What does this fold into?
Amino acid sequence: MSERTYDRIYIGGEWVRPHSGRSISSIDPSTEEVWAEVAEADERDVDLAAAAARSAMQGPWSSRVTPAQRGELLYRLAGLLRRDAARIAELESRDNGKPLRDTLGEMQRAAEWLTFFAGAADKIGGEQIPFRPNALAYTRREPVGVVGAILPWNSPMLLYSWKLGPALAAGNAVVLKPAEQTPVSAMELARLIAEARFPAGVVNVVPGYGQTAGAALAAHPGVNKISFTGSHATARKIMQSASVNLKRLTFECGGKSPHIIFADADVERALVVATQSAFRSTGQSCSLGSRLFVQKPLYSEFLDRIAARARRIRVGMPLDKSTQIGPQTSAEQLAKTQSYIATGKQQGAQLITGGGRPQGFDRGYFIEPTVFAGVENRSRLAQEEIFGPVLAVIPFDSEEEAIALANDVEYGLVAGLWTADVSRAHRMAAALQSGLVTVNTFRTTHPMLPYGGYKLSGVGRESGMEAIHHYTEVKTVVVDFDPAPPADPFAD
Ligand code: NAI
Ligand code: MG
It folds into this structure.
């Protein structure tokens, strides 16, 4: 028997039963047991949700609610999330297996994102363009319309805030589809949306499977934009179905981020950051520093020390306060990580530490922090996103070589380097093909900082005022007040 049941989905401001009459069984990845049942939305529910969002766009949400009031609603939502952070964090930890310390932090960060965009809501304006003396030209930034938000399972609530914040600040209506692996916190979010008193239909929550609910949202002619976070394979499918009505797209599709340590780095700081950037969240993060390039004079020392740190990471039950990383979120993800570890060994990489199930766990999707050395940059271990706690360590000689190796990958989300040389830092920042380059730190994400990928890592940007642009259409308006007669090519 599951411990929690959500038998309704949230459409048009109402809690309704899903057409399917079925539910999604959500598994606690630390026990491999079903712990929650969540009503399953399918195509028919997505259709209703899109219609509800459309009527919200045609009602007071667009015509009466002021930008400042949209900001107020987002502030209220942020406050409610802070109030309920501890409770929802625990549910999130049960659903996706992250340690409580991480999910608690994510609730706070989600509230920070909502707060940033609450403040942005009344600062979204167009510009006036002095293109002719006897005319007024200006741009309006209008909402795109109905936004389909398709989310993954690695940081559910935080990523909801990344999409809802800018979408709602800019005046859009949203149909939100959580990942089938982690639907629970989305239902809690829907409760808070209702409590915050957003107008009906402004946010709709449809937990469902990718093939059904997700695909229906991507193909829906009444949806104007898809904002997606997940794998680039799914992004491709969404892009194809989204072509029906040329939907606007924002994709964040993960990466294989290079983390480059020069011999002149502050080694102590770099070690702390490289370790957490490789193993935090059991490796289930789009911004993982999963390819660690170390300049040769420092290589063996750094490798030894990061492996020693990896061995000390406490793998444990998500609700245990001393746990540093939990299990992987699903059996599929665990199998994927294990298959890359096997491939790494077959392809001749040297396993330095980890690679197996940690001692003391006979169930749950647990895996040890794993370090491979001597990894060939063109090998699958160094080229493909694993999404598990598996680090590939690669030596290099020169700055040029580091750039070539770092860029020789299909992804481009985050890149980071450690050096004391200011000139090199800026040269590298310009040369690295990546949406975020960090120097003497790694993968800083913040509501103020635009975030997104080059190459297969994505399309568009999230966060910062930049995100607002991706949730608006620009309309140019030209008003002519020239008293002179207009040019007439057909005179005489
Ligand atoms: P996925 O991309 O299949 O799932 C993400 C979301 O897309 C889920 O809500 C899913 O229901 C939905 N979806 C699936 N198929 C769809 C379709 N045809 N149309 C519309 N929506 C669809 O990712 P999955 O299978 O859960 O994870 C596989 C790999 O993807 C991971 O191992 C990791 O490498 C990568 N990934 C990257 C993430 C990131 O943060 N960028 C997050 C999650 C996964
Ligand atoms: Mg689950």
The longest strand covers residues 135-143. The first helix runs from residue 43 to 58.
